[in-house]
Structures are given as C-alpha cells and as structure tokens.
User: Which sequence fits this backbone?
C-alpha cells in the first residue's frame, strides 16, 4: 500500500488533502508517486479549474482539523472487532446477534460493548425498522442489556 506523510499523519489513496496554489484547493489522493508526490483529484478552482488531477508535494498539503485518515479509520474498525463480551460463556462481537427478554423474547444486533464490573453492558440495535417489541422498549431502535441477561440463538 502506497503511503505518504501529511502533518505527521500517514495518508494513502482516497484520503482528502488540502493545498494552496493560487487559492485553497482540496481533493482525494488518487496515487502517490516517488518523492512524496501526491496525485490529487478534485473539482479545482482558479488556475486549476480545467484540471481534474494535480500533482503536489505532500509537504505542501494539510488535513482538516478533525479529519480521520483512511488508515486511522481502518485501525478503529480493526480494534472494534477485537472487543468482545461473554454470552453463555461464548465470545460475542460487534454486529453479532443475541437474544434477550424485555417484555417479550426478542433479539438485537450488538452495536456497543462496555465492561461493567464482572458483566458486560451490550448496546443492542433492533433489526426491525419498527424497533423492539413490548411495553417497556416497544418502538425503540436501541436498548442496553447486560450480557448475563442474554443468550445465543
């Protein structure tokens, strides 16, 4: 994978960068050439208005202040898959389905896991557009349950 450094962050293909020629421009990295030359694609203005791509030195670029690079996003997703809870002594992960009873027996997709004492708090998302069933959580799209109150299958 081709990478370069912009503002001390590793960037790669499809990261958004900013640069200034005659005016401030931004676009997505489409290639990285030898010598840290970024091939940036965008809808440019000013003297670049007719160009679809522009080659710029990585050291002349900057990132938006809260921008998460492609590699940072991948690392976050990778870490999410390592977080697990125990349901019926089995490991469950984000996006797994567990069953529980709240008014009625139902199930939800795990969207969050938090260790609380000796148990795990699971944030569950309904798989139905209408939300969960029952008087207590009926219609809610998300709910929180302890892993010890859930089961598989």
Assistant:
């Amino acid at each position: 994978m081709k990478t370069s450094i912009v503002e001390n962050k590793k960037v790669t293909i499809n990261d958004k960068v900013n640069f200034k020629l005659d005016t401030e421009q931004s676009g997505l990295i489409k290639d990285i050439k030898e010598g840290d030359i970024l091939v940036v694609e965008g809808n440019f203005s000013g003297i670049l208005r007719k160009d679809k791509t522009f080659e710029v030195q990585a050291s002349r670029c900057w990132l938006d202040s809260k921008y998460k690079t492609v590699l940072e996003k991948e690392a976050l997703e990778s870490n999410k898959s390592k977080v697990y809870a125990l349901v019926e002594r089995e490991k469950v992960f984000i996006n797994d389905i567990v069953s529980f009873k709240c008014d009625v027996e139902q199930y939800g997709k795990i969207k969050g896991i938090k260790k609380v004492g000796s148990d795990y708090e699971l944030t569950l998302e309904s798989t139905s557009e209408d939300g969960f069933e029952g008087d207590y959580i009926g219609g809610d799209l998300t709910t929180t349950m302890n892993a010890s109150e859930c089961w598989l299958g």
